[in-house]
Specification:
The complex is a heterodimer of chains A (378) and B (609).
Chain A lengths: L8 E6 L1 E2 L11 E2 L5 H16 L5 E8 L6 H15 L2 E11 L6 H10 L3 E7 L3 H6 L6 H13 L3 E8 L6 H13 L4 E6 L7 H8 L7 H17 L3 E4 L2 E3 L6 H8 L4 E3 L4 E4 L2 E5 L3 H9 L5 E6 L2 H13 L5 E2 H8 L3 H14 L3 E3 L3 E4 L1 H5 L10
Parallel strand pairs in A: 1-4, 1-11, 2-3, 4-5, 5-6, 6-7, 7-8
Antiparallel strand pairs in A: 8-10, 9-10, 12-13, 13-14, 15-17, 16-17
Chain B lengths: L5 E8 L5 H11 L17 H6 L7 E8 L2 E8 L8 H8 L4 E7 L6 H12 L3 E7 L8 H12 L7 E2 L8 H11 L12 E10 L3 E10 L1 E3 L3 E4 L4 E4 L2 E5 L3 E4 L1 E3 L3 E5 L13 E4 L18 E7 L5 H14 L4 E7 L3 E8 L2 H15 L3 E3 L6 E5 L4 E4 L11 E16 L3 H10 L3 E7 L4 E9 H15 L5 E11 L2 E8 L2 E2 L5 E4 L3 H15 L7 E7 L2 E8 L15 H16 L2 E3 L2 E3 L24
Parallel strand pairs in B: 1-3, 1-4, 4-5, 5-6
Antiparallel strand pairs in B: 2-3, 7-8, 7-16, 8-15, 9-14, 10-11, 10-16, 12-13, 12-15, 17-19, 17-20, 18-19, 21-22, 21-23, 23-25, 23-26, 24-25, 27-28, 27-29, 27-30, 30-31, 32-33
Classes of the chains: A alpha/beta (378), B alpha+beta (609).
């Protein structure tokens, strides 16, 4: 696990957006399409400096920002240079995040031509009013058309939904879930709306201008999602992620297994040779540094083996299948009980963890309050 | 220096009336220290004092000045101004023949002006009355003189005016000290006899003993004896404070200075001890000082149990320089091993805590302050209790007594009604009202010390918009309808949260405490019941509902480090909490018992933690 050869996944961050949505705190630039040529140049430079030589991978993920903001031509350029540095192994998974409003025939064609086989749609909702509150620029028709385009071009479809938006009712949320299921995607992610520091929503909530959904409702919405999606044949495999069996996000599972991955672009985080690095979040700073031949890395940390094992334990427990004692020991050379015997025993007693002696996993109740468990496992 | 050319005096004043500034000016005028060397408030050499602008420890400085060609030695012995430090005030006053009574020409006579002036009078000191800040636009010198006459029988014609800030009138203060304060009475030829009035520890020289020579002469190299301690030492060095230590060949009757005797521990130097000759018949032992009365107690616990020994050392170190503070080990189910500490008052308590945190770098959990109670049990046993949790069960108590203090409030007459209401609410007993002037009055009430300690000072400041001041003296113990109020968290009594209060206040207090606890204790995975109870009778309850949803939705490549750091931080925070049963209680919650159930008037000490 410690050699650069073992990283079999790569993430590429595309920071462009038309507009920054009120809840978003991702690394992005809004309305700066003029920076795209410079960005392509910087990515090329970063990849070549970082990798030295092409590195074959199994999963590739273009996230954002909005990768589809590049438009078909620049997207093709980015795809080409990325594939040069990261040749894709047989049976690869290549996901691209897409804004439904950007999904044109040309875009879908460009993706298919490049070899993209999985489209992750930032649908968030099908309801106009909710989309407006969330400051999204698409409508339900565009979501439906995006799914059709993806199908026509041989791509699997993943749909992202947000729940607990201001004023949303349980019935409205159910309608969103039902419409998503009806489109027959392979994958659905559901995210409770969070109010992050530094976002407009944070300030507006503080001002009393936005009212956060009450905790009971949030809980009910989350439980409803679990219920509906599992009924519809989806497997709930991670806190927020549901997949038709055989269609999990292989790329994201890399993160949760504690495996290593490459990354490039502003704000992108990589884990290579046991070192976690995060690039500078500001797109302009990132571009300036890379083009000046400087490192774009803003943060760097190297964990000792025990810290790595603990981190892995937590992220693995966020997967609903839990952690197998033997597998964990083999992967980390730490026994789970050596790391967290007392905490596991305690939370099992509280009914938050299920422990059959071999495998430890979250119970439903534990899942709902799991953030209160993690500090005690560190 | 012949005694007749020596003057020893203190400056006594209410806090903020300009004592330290005046001291600075006197040092400058006498050329003891140049303006260039002058640091603001030179006598307050502890950081904490400078921060708070108050003088805590007595300090001494020796000045020389010429009047009509004759050189005089003037020794200024600094005193603390706050009521809590009455003990140190009397220590200083015992070494003086006179006192400059400094009153702010705008603020006028305040509670501590009165208390300190009385203390000086009790020591039969000559009072030199001085009004400070006469240059202020709002100064009201005539009324203030009238107040001084009314309260302290001071002849208005004797009152000097000065501005310590600008130096105007300060030379006249020195002249008046020389003219009015009597010379010390001692005989330089008699057997050596000196009073130890302070000490501090110097890393290189060992104990520095502060003395006032009452009789005789002491020389370098002489063998001396501490009469009370019974130890003998050689005088390695002696001298005066100018204000730095300045070695001299000898000190004689009337002078104030220091002795260095190669003493390795301050524990060997007792404040109030008499120093005399080691060879031959020693002089008579001087009347020492009254033991300081510890009025306020609280528990101090290290946040991290590992720091217990370190805390003990730090407390011992502080006690060396401040014998008025006392501590003994105690154990709490909730907080583990710690110390029960006794203080002269609330300010004293705050200062010791701050000093501990600054100087020893120990994270502390403090329990709410309480006073000493006396209990007669049904079996006839008499006990004195410093800790609420040690109060016997209600059924075993025959009589429960609490300390009562006589409180003097000095305030503008406009606020008399408000303060009277406050005292009535606290079941105070009215003693008298004295008018200091048409606009200012002194109001005297007998109140339970517990109520005074609790929040009286803050309430007074709030009612009088900062213009009211107070001072108190202990009257004695009186039986009262007191109860021990216990707090239960998830059905377990948290010993460190028990308080004693009047039965009639118990419901309000109980409700306020658990309401506050509800705010301070984070939600758990399970429901947490909070109860306030007297014995087995629950008088108030609240429930902290269980956490319902607490789960991070997004956790991808870029989130992992951030999340781990966040959870790491939460883990650290959790470590600093105390676990009672399964419930984690933050340290701040242990001060919840200070909640009054009233809207205003929250104790300043509560902000800690």
């Amino acid at each position: 696990m410690t050699s650069i050869e073992t990283s079999r996944a790569a993430y590429l961050h595309v920071p462009f957006c038309v507009h920054r949505c009120g809840y978003c705190n991702f690394a992005l630039v809004a309305g700066r399409g003029d920076l795209v040529p410079t960005y392509l140049e910087a990515i090329e430079k970063e990849l070549s400096r970082q990798l030295g030589e092409p590195r074959e991978i199994d999963t590739l993920y273009f996230g954002g920002g909005t990768p589809t903001q590049l438009g078909a031509i620049d997207f093709a350029k980015l795809a080409r240079l990325t594939r040069h540095w990261h040749p894709l192994a047989e049976g690869y998974e290549w996901t691209v995040e897409a804004n439904p409003a950007d999904m044109t025939v040309e875009m879908a064609q460009a993706m298919a031509d490049a070899g993209v086989n999985r489209l992750s749609l930032g649908a968030q909702s099908f309801r106009a009013e909710k989309l407006k509150v969330l400051e999204r620029d698409h409508d339900d028709g565009q979501i439906v058309r995006s799914v059709e385009l993806a199908r026509r071009h041989g791509m699997e479809v993943a749909i992202d939904l947000i729940f607990a938006s201001p004023g949303e009712t349980l019935a409205e949320w159910q309608a969103d879930l039902d419409r998503a299921v009806a489109l027959l995607p392979e994958h659905i992610s559901v995210y409770g709306l969070t109010y992050e520091k530094g976002t407009a929503f944070w300030t507006r909530r503080k001002r009393g201008d936005l009212v956060e959904a009450d905790e009971e409702l949030q809980r009910a919405m989350y439980e409803l999602a679990i219920e509906r999606l599992t009924e519809a044949g989806f497997e709930h495999y991670e806190v927020s992620n549901f997949a038709i069996p055989g269609h999990r996000s292989r790329h994201n599972e890399t993160y949760w297994r504690g495996d290593e991955y490459f990354a490039a672009g502003p704000g992108a985080a990589r884990y290579v040779d046991g070192v976690r690095e995060t690039n500078h979040r500001s797109t302009t700073t990132y571009l300036r540094r890379v083009l000046a031949g400087e490192s774009p890395v803003a943060e760097r940390e190297e964990l000792d083996n025990e810290a790595k094992a603990r981190e892995r334990l937590i992220f693995a427990l966020r997967r609903l299948e839990g952690v197998d004692r033997r597998e964990f020991l083999a992967a980390t050379s730490f026994a789970i009980d050596q790391l967290a015997h007392d905490a596991i025993e305690k939370f099992a007693r509280y009914g938050m963890l299920a422990d059959d002696g071999q495998r430890v996993k979250l119970t439903r109740e534990g899942l709902l309050v799991s953030d209160a468990i993690w500090p005690e496992l560190l | 220096m012949l005694p007749k050319y020596i003057r020893n005096f203190s400056i006594i004043a209410h806090i903020d009336h300009g004592k330290s500034t005046l001291a600075d000016r006197l040092l400058e005028i006498t050329g003891t220290i140049t303006k260039r060397e002058m640091k603001e408030q030179i006598l307050d050499d502890m950081d904490l004092e400078r921060q708070r602008g108050i003088t805590i420890k007595a300090r001494a400085v020796s000045m020389r000045t010429k009047v009509d060609g004759q050189e005089y030695e003037i020794n200024l012995i600094d005193t603390p101004g706050h009521v809590d430090f009455q003990y140190e005030v009397s220590r200083s006053l015992a070494c003086c023949e006179g006192a400059v009574l400094l009153v702010d020409a705008f603020q006028g006579v305040e509670a501590q002006t009165v208390a300190n002036a009385y203390a000086a009078m009790e020591h039969e000191l000559t009072i030199v009355p001085v009004m400070n800040k006469v240059d202020l636009v709002h100064a009201r010198p005539d009324e203030v003189k009238e107040e001084m006459e009314q309260t302290l029988s001071i002849d208005p014609d004797e009152v000097l005016g000065c501005s310590a800030k600008t130096g105007v009138g300060c030379k006249e203060v020195i002249d008046a000290v020389i003219a009015r304060v009597p010379a010390p009475a001692g005989d330089p030829k008699a057997t050596f006899q000196a009073m130890v009035f302070d000490s501090h520890y110097d890393e290189f020289r060992g104990a520095i003993t502060y003395v006032r020579i009452m009789n005789g002469t002491v020389k370098k190299g002489q063998k001396i004896k501490f009469l009370q301690a019974g130890t003998t030492h050689d005088v390695v060095e002696l001298g005066r404070f100018t204000p730095k230590r300045e070695a001299a060949k000898q000190l004689s009757a009337g002078q104030v200075g220091y002795l260095i005797c190669n003493i390795k521990s301050l524990g060997q130097v007792h404040i109030g001890d008499t120093v005399s000759v080691a060879i031959g018949e020693p002089a008579e032992m001087l009347a020492g000082y009254e033991e300081p009365k510890r009025m306020v107690f609280c528990g101090l616990y290290p946040s991290d149990g590992q720091d217990f020994e370190q805390l003990r050392e730090a407390l011992a170190k502080l006690q060396v320089n401040d014998p008025s503070f006392d501590f003994e080990p105690e154990t709490s189910d909730a907080l583990g091993f710690g110390f029960r500490c006794g203080f002269l008052g609330l300010l004293h308590m705050e200062i010791i805590q701050q000093r501990l945190e600054q100087e020893a770098d120990i994270d502390l959990v403090q329990t709410a302050p309480n006073v000493t109670y006396e209990v007669t049990t049904k079996s006839g046993e008499e006990i004195e209790v410093h800790t609420p949790q040690k109060i016997p069960d209600q059924g075993d108590i025959e009589e429960f007594r609490q300390p009562i203090v006589r409180v003097s409030f000095v305030l503008p007459t406009d606020y008399i009604g408000g303060v009277m209401k406050l005292c009535a609410d606290r079941r105070g007993e009215y003693v008298r009202t004295e008018y200091l002037s048409p606009t200012r009055a002194m109001l005297v009430y007998d109140l339970a010390l517990a109520d005074v300690v609790y929040d009286m000072h803050d309430r007074l400041k709030s009612i009088t918009r900062g213009y009211g001041t107070m001072d108190y003296e202990l009257l004695g113990y009186q039986p009262a309808e007191l109860v021990r109020l216990d707090i239960l968290v998830k059905n377990e009594r948290v010993d460190a949260l028990s308080i004693v209060c009047d039965r009639r206040d118990s419901e309000i207090r109980g409700r306020a405490v658990i309401k506050k606890l509800k705010k301070e204790i984070p939600r758990h995975m399970f429901e947490v019941a909070l109860q306030a109870a007297i014995g087995t009778r629950v008088i108030a309850r609240e429930t902290i509902s269980a956490m319902r949803k607490n789960v991070t939705a997004k956790c991808y490549g870029g989130d992992i480090s951030r999340k781990r750091k966040l959870w790491d931080k939460q883990k650290e925070g959790k470590k600093r909490m105390k676990s009672i049963g399964q419930v984690d209680i933050p340290q701040k919650a242990f001060l919840a018992v200070l909640e009054t159930g009233e809207e205003e008037g929250k104790g300043g000490v509560k902000q800690r933690g």
